[in-house]
Structures are given as C-alpha cells and as structure tokens.
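Section handout 9: paired folding examples.
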Amino acid sequence: MMRNPCLSPAAKNHFPKPKKYHWTIFDKDNIDEEIFRTLNIRNRLRLELMARGGMKISEAPGLKPQDIDGQKLLLHTPKSGREREIIFIPEKLSSRLQNFIRDTSISSNQFIFPITYTGARKVVGKAGEMVGIKLLPHDLRRHSATYASRSANPIDIVSKVILRHADSR
C-alpha cells in the first residue's frame, strides 16, 4: 500500500493551513474622527476617497484633475484589468477635492496625490494611531461598503457600484 505524499511532514511545511482572519468593522465615528483629525488636506482627501468612495489605496496616486467630472472620478488603469472604471463620491467630497485642486494650482494633467504605495499606507496607519486604532487601507474601503449597506442600499449596488466588483458574490 502506497502512502499519500501530501500527508508527509515536508508537504505540511510547504502547504500550511491558511490562517483565518476576522477583520474589524470600525464605527463611523472612529473613521470620521481619524479623517477630521488629519491636518494635511491632501492626506485627508485621500482618506475620505477611500472611506466614502470605496477607492483602493493604489488608485489615488493615478488621479488627475482631468479625471474628475462632478461626483464621478474616472480611473484609466484600474486594478481590475478593465479599460476604465468610475468611482462615485459624495457631493461635499467632490467640492472639497475641486477646491483643493484650485487652491494648490494643480494643472489638469498633474497627479493630485503624488505618493508611493508605502507612503500612502503610512498615512493611513498614522491616522488610525491618532484615534487609537490599528487601521489598514482596506479597512477604509470596507467601511464605505458597510456604511452604504447600512444606509439601506441594495447589496448589488454596494458590490457593483461602490466596490466595483465584477459580480456580487
């Protein structure tokens, strides 16, 4: 009788069981406090885009003023592999973003958030530390979905429009 090679100690070391991770859904007040305690306007806007618009941390650095059309942000190279995606943001956030662009004289083809991925992660982490929570970038995106679904938006809308998933599963 032949033994199953997958049950050998060497195979178990190479293919350990995945660890289960249960993320924390932060209260709206915690997220609002961490946003409004961030004094750098550019960093605050980046945090708001992730928490209110469901933007991924890697999408903000590619955003230019020419990509803004009212409450719609056009992504030219989204991580999904699609040609383009649209992010919908609240009117107040759109107004603050456009005021920031005007006040800092960012031209239409310049990047609004010229920062590396690592730098953006540090901004999120420091914002969380200010309110005493360990905050990760995806926590803000998850917050936008949670808040939208708790506001009686259908799960299909949350999944396909806010999170821009291909399907709602």
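Moving on to protein 2 of 2.
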Amino acid sequence: MQPRRSGSSGLSLSPVGLGTMTWGRDTDVHEARALLEAYLDAGGTLLDTAAGYGEGRAEATIGELLGDVVARRDVVLCSKAGVRTTRDGVRIDAGRGALLDDLDTTLARLRTDHLDLWLVQAPDPRTPAEETVGALVHAVATGRTRYVGLSNHPGWATAQLATLARAAGVPLAGVEVEYSLLERGIEREVLPAADALGLGVLAWSALGRGVLTAKYRRVRPADSRAASAHLRAFVEPYLTERAARVVEAVATAASGLGRSPAQVALAWVRDAPGVTSALVGPRTAAQLADVVDAADLVLPEEIRAVLDEVTAPPAGYPERR
C-alpha cells in the first residue's frame, strides 16, 4: 500500500485503514492480533479507533498489542473523542475539559505518549466552536497529538472549525466521514469543503457496514453484525430494497472482473476523488485477506461509471453527519 498525504498536511496514511470498533468486545485480543499482523504484512499502517469504542476496550486492546506485534513508530494511530456512554445514554461533549480528559485516557489505554491524528468525533451544538478548536490547538502544542481533525461533521461545520483552526496556527489535517456506494451524501458538501480547505478524507464503513460484501443477499448469517444484539441497529438501515439493488450491481461487476463484491466496493471508495484512506472493520483474518487483495484492483472507467449511476443519491438526499 503506497501511503498518501492527508490533504495538504504532512501526514501520510495508508490507502486502506484498519478500523477497530469491535475490538475488545466482539473481537478478542487473539483475533485482533491476527488481524493486525495480517494488515501489517499487507503494508498497512493506519489504525483507527475511538475513546468510545467498546467503552475504551478497543483502545486498550491496541495498547496491549503495541510494542508486542508492532513498534509504535511503525503505525499511524488515529483516535476520536467527544462521545461518551453514560447512564442516561450516549452524550456528545466537545468542550475543552471533556476532549482533553478523553485524550489523556486514550493515551493511557494505548500506552503511548502521543497520537498521530486526533479527531472530534461528532458536532456539539452546545459548545462554542472556538472552545473546541482551542482544545485541538492545546493538544498539538503539548505534544499529545501530531495532527488534528474532525469526524462526522457536516460541510458547514467542517468549514467553520477548519477556518478557526487555521487562524490559530494549527490547520486541520483531515475529516473522517461515512462514505460508500450505499452512502454518498458527503458528495454534496463535505467533499467539496475538504477539497477547498486542503483536508484529507478518511472514509469509514467503506463496505457499507458490511452489506456491500453481499453476505446479506439471501440470509442474515448467524455470526454477522446484523445478527448481533448491539450491532443490529448499525446494519439495518442498509438492509433495504434500494441497498439490495446496489449490492446486485456490485456483485454483477465483481463477477465480470473475477473479483469479490467487497473488493469492488472498496476499490470504488479508495480511488474516489478526494479520499485519502478507506476504512474497513473486518472481524476475521479471512475477511481482511479479501479486502487486502483489492490493493491491485483499479476499476475500469466503464464499471465505475455504471456504479456511479446506479448508486447516485436521489434528488434532495440529505448529507449525513
């Protein structure tokens, strides 16, 4: 995997990143080790996590593997802050105190003194943008992270915070947003904003929350996320008639190319204009091997054009945060 620069920053990222949302919960440390080793063997370096994944268990699992499976300097660590699970449910807090507390806890779990990229995980309408940016600037100034950015922010908020950060002398390096053949809403505002502001784009759930692998075409596998009590709601929005038509188009293209649907879907996102890295979250080494094999796949322009047409968002399609 040839690394790419994240926007106009000096940060280099693998074109395919390894997501860890299920680590420490559905994926135990032994499975995580196998995934990490296979990913590193394929030339990958980007590990994407968050303070809220598994209430911190994902970060703790990575911390257990760092230094054992791989040296800290040989990976790019990206984590996110600002979303917490409390007794009253999920709470979004992008205030200075909450963000910096999360960052310190993240570093302790990961057993490192710095992140390579630190992101505000979700927009917080209650906190002034200047305060959120102030926390990002402080984190860079104190050496706790090398680069900063945003996750799941709409276009207007991305532009607002990026402008404030640049004025403060710490330009944002990237934005992490959902993007796949099943979710193209960011093309309306986020992608143009990122391009204009010099931000790299990290596309999470590049395989449409697993649906674009075509594993749900006829049944819901018992070991799949759709059959998991705590992940079912994550997958079900894409188990629709429209999504099924998209999956069929991807499967048809894959059959013609002699590839798997997952490889076609990943190649489409990875090479989409503006995308720096496509993030995947395989649960097994076999699933990871399938997407890693897409490294040499360049979609013919005819197939990309057909997929673009089949999956284009309908008129008035809203942009996801």
